[in-house]
Amino acid sequence: MEKYDAKNKVGIGVYNLDPRWMSFEDFDWYVDQGYINTFILNMDGFGTTVGAAEKLQQSGGQAWLGCPVFVSKRESLSDYMGRLVNYTKRLNERGVWDRFIGFNFDEPLIQRDCTNDDLLAVTKAMHEEFGMRIYPVFSTQEVLGQKGNWNDPDGTLILESYATEYLTDIGFDSYGYDFRPPTEAMAKKLASVSEKYPQVTDTASYYRFIFDTLKGIVANKEANVWVTPSMYYSYTWAGCYSDEDYNTAHLKGLFDILMEQEHPGGIMGYTFKSWGRKERGLDFYLNPRNPERWTKFEAAMREIHDKIKNIEIK
Q1: Which pTM does this prediction carry?
Q2: Number of other CB atoms surrounding residue 165 within 10 Å
Q3: In this structure, which long-range contacts are made by residues 43-48, counting pairs with CB atoms below 8 Å and at least 24 apart in sequence?
Q4: Are 56 and 31 spatial neighbours (Cβ–Cβ below 8 Å)?
Q5: What's the CA gap between 306 and 225, in Å, rounded?
Q6: How far apart are CA 267 and CA 304, in angstroms?
C-alpha cells in the first residue's frame, strides 16, 4: 500500500467503515486496499476508535470524530462539551488524536427536539474549544425546508443561516436519483420535482440545485463541500434497486459535481454496514469472499481516489 498522509486532503470514505461493526482484522484489510483515506470513528466506542486510529497512523488516513447531536432539552451544553472534551483528552492520552481533523454529525435538525439554536451553540463551543473542522451532513428536508408538513408545523427543521456560522464542511444526503438515462419512473419523479423547482431537469441538476441551495444558506462561503453517494442496495425513484451499476454511476456522477466545487471536501458514501438483506452495504458487496463482489464499483473507487488523493483542502 502506498504510504502518504491524507490529513487535510480531499477525502474518500464510507459511513460505518468502523471496527465497531467488524473485526480489527477486517478493518485493517479494507484500510490496506489503499483507496479509502477518510473515516468517521464514532464516540459510541472507545477501544474500537483507538484501534482504528492506530491503524490510520500507519496508513496515513484521516478521521472525523462522529459525535451525537446536541439537544438542549435533554442535556446542558456544558455537560455535552464536558463529555466531548473528556473523550478527546483520552484519545490524546492514547496518542491517536493527531489523526483527527474535526467533528462530524448526521442530520441534526431532524433529530427529535434539536433546533437551530442548538446547532449554533454546540458548533460555537466546538470551535472555541478545539478550533478544528466541523462537518454536519444534512437531509434534503433540512436544506429545502418543510414548513407546514404534518411532522414540522412550525418549520423547525429548516436550516437557518445564523446557525451555520462555525461550519467548515457541509454535505447532504439523497440516494434515490439515478445518474443513468432515466427510466419511466425516474422521468416521472424528475418531472414532479421540476414542477416545484424548475431548475431541476435531470439527476445532475437536482443535486446541483440542492448544493446551490445549501451553499446559499451556509454563512461560511468557503465551506468544503462533501458529496454522499449511494453505496448500498435499496429501492430508488428509478423503480429499481441500487445495484452495482446504479451505485457506480451515482459515485461517478457525484464525483463530477464535487470537482465542479470551488472548495471540494470529499466523498463520504453510504453505507459500509448492512442493515438487513434489503439494505445490504459494502461489507457484503466488497467482501473478498463474496462471489458477487462489486469489482466494477471498487475500480471506480480506486480511480477516483487516485484523482483526489493529493488535492489539498483550500
Answers
A1: 0.96
A2: 14
A3: 43/67, 43/68, 43/84, 43/87, 44/20, 45/18, 45/19, 45/20, 46/87, 46/90, 48/18, 48/19, 48/20
A4: yes
A5: 19
A6: 10
Closest-CA residue to 203 (of 187, 217, 192, 219): 187
Strand partners, 103: 65, 134
Q: Give yes or no for a contact between 186 and 237, defined as CB atoms under 8 angstroms apart.
A: yes
- Tens-of-pLDDT digits for all 314 residues of the chain? 456 899 999 999 999 999 999 999 999 999 999 999 999 999 999 999 999 999 999 999 999 999 999 999 999 999 999 999 999 999 999 999 999 999 999 999 998 889 999 999 999 999 999 999 999 999 999 999 877 666 677 777 899 999 999 999 999 999 999 999 999 999 999 999 999 999 999 999 999 999 999 999 999 999 999 999 999 999 999 999 999 999 999 999 999 999 999 999 999 999 999 998 789 999 999 999 999 999 999 999 999 999 999 999 98
Q: Which residue has the cell 463520504?
A: 268
